[in-house]
Structure formats: structure tokens, C-alpha cells
């Protein structure tokens, strides 16, 4: 499905609206992110102050969108910014996409991805990336159906764990 199709496809059920996350959503975001981690067999170390600072704070590292039905969050998308300096390319990485089990299969995930793509366009991004667990065929099929393609491997990546993070404490 081409990007333009995602943006023009019908919205999820009328009672669902996609909007930017607000500070009042911090607890719900925390629960949804933790549920997604549990779904993947992981235990999230994220705590409420992390959501408030890193996702909703004035100098946030990420941003979030919320799918809301009847005044209650039923899904979310959390994206982080990335910059490919050699190419002067702005990118968004969709690090978390969650829809509550009772609301799945109704187009809410697709609507959240469409909202992320609109956000990327407004930020003049050249790409949106997303990762899935190696064995998560359902997620891979979902993203491929929306037009995402596997990203080419660019070689090994290295990391240096900073624990506690620099500046903490």
C-alpha cells in the first residue's frame, strides 16, 4: 500500500480519534508501553517520570500519539527523531505501536501509522523506520502491507552502555 493510500484510507471507527499525547496521558502511555513489552516477553524498565520527561517533557527525546475512544486511550504510537548527518536527512523511528486487544483489527494501528507519516511530512523527514522482533511475522506483514520495506543492513553497529546515564543524579 503506497504512502498516499495510508493517508487517504478511511479512518478507524468514528468514536476513535488520534491526537497528540498530553501530560494527563502519562499513566496510560506507561501502561500501554509496558503491555507491549510484556507481549514481546520483555519487562519494561520505563517508569512514570521517564514518560513525563522523555516523551511529554519540554525537551522530550520522543513524542507520542494517542488513539482515544470515549475519552480513554486505547492505543498509542511513540516516535523518536533521528538525523542522518551525511545525507542531511531527518527521520522518525516508530519505536512503539500499541492497540488494546479489544480494539485490534479495526484500523486503529493503521490510523496511528498514518498520523506518524503526517507528522514526518510536517517535519520534512525523508523516512520513517520501524523495527519488529525477528519472529513477529504478524507485525512484519502489517508494516509491509502499509508499504514499509526491509531496510538494508549497513554493517555492524556498536554501543557503549552508560549506566547510570550521563547527567543522571
Core attributes:
169 residues, 31% helix, five-stranded mixed β-sheet, alpha+beta, 5 helices, 24% strand, single chain, Aminopeptidase
Distance between the termini: 47 Å
Strand order of the largest sheet: 1-2-3-4-5
Alpha carbon gyration radius: 16 Å
User: What proportion strand?
Assistant: 15-25%
Indicate how many domains the architecture comprises.
1
Chain-averaged pLDDT: 90
Under CATH, the topology is which? Answer: Aminopeptidase
**Quick one: CATH superfamily?**
Gcn5-related N-acetyltransferase (GNAT)
Q: Level of helix content?
A: 25-40%
Give the biggest sheet: 5 strands, mixed
Helical stretch count?
A: 5
Q: Estimate the global geometry from the Cα principal axes.
A: globular
State the CATH architecture.
3-Layer(aba) Sandwich
Record field, number of beta strands: 5
Which CATH top level class fits?
Alpha Beta
Run of helices and strands: HEHHEEEHEH
